[in-house]
């Protein structure tokens, strides 16, 4: 199923889920915080302030790491604002797939990355991911795990779900 956004014409694939799947993993509570208003401040507060002054890990170091590992076929899960994909150095013209539970984040990242025409997929990373393509050379999961419910053991299902790609 695809969802067309009337004003922006961003196409996002949204998989159908059963009621039991939605009850089993409720990751939506972590995604609900990312409204257009919070995303407008996200880069400044999280990447500008928190990374440097709270976590003592400046964003430029994370970007350096991203540059070392990003490939020309990249899957980004938990896209935030798309900051790292906008600023990283892809080794060639990239094919980018974005995957997130939050429509606001997908729209913001897709707008910022429009020159690459990213494929947008809406879904829960705690469920089986079905985006119709594979063979990604890199997968970004920046700032994702803390948004998911449960402990590290329950969150580890993410790695099994991503391993297929």
CATH superfamily: Vaccinia Virus protein VP39
The residue-averaged pLDDT reads: 85
The biggest beta sheet reads: 6 strands, mixed
What is the terminal-to-terminal distance? 20 Å
Radius of gyration: 15 Å
CATH topology: Rossmann fold
Q: Indicate the overall shape.
A: globular
Number of strands: 6
Given helix and strand content, the structural type is alpha/beta
Number of domains: 1
List keywords for this structure.
single chain, 165 residues, alpha/beta, Rossmann fold, 6-stranded mixed sheet, 6 strands, disordered N terminus
Layout of strands and helices, then pairs:
Blueprint: E1 2-4, E2 11-13, H1 19-24, H2 28-31, H3 36-54, H4 59-69, E3 73-77, H5 83-87, E4 95-100, H6 103-112, E5 119-122, E6 138-140, H7 152-155, H8 157-163
Parallel strand pairs: 2-5, 3-4, 3-6, 4-5
Antiparallel strand pairs: 1-2
């Amino acid at each position: 199923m695809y969802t067309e956004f009337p004003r922006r014409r961003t196409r996002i694939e949204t998989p159908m889920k059963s009621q039991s799947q939605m009850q089993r993993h409720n990751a939506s509570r972590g995604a609900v915080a990312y409204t257009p208003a919070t995303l407008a401040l996200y880069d400044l507060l999280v990447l500008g302030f928190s990374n440097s002054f709270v976590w003592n890990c400046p964003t430029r170091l994370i970007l350096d790491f991203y540059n070392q590992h990003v490939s020309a076929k990249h899957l980004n899960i938990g896209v935030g604002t798309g900051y790292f994909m906008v600023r990283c150095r892809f080794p060639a013209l990239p094919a980018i797939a974005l995957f997130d539970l939050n429509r606001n984040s997908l729209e913001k990242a897709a707008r910022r990355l429009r020159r690459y025409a990213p494929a947008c997929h809406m879904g829960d990373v705690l469920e089986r991911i079905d985006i119709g393509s594979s063979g990604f050379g890199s997968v970004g999961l920046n700032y994702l795990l803390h948004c998911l419910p449960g402990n590290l053991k329950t969150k580890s299902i993410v790695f099994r779900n991503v391993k297929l790609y």
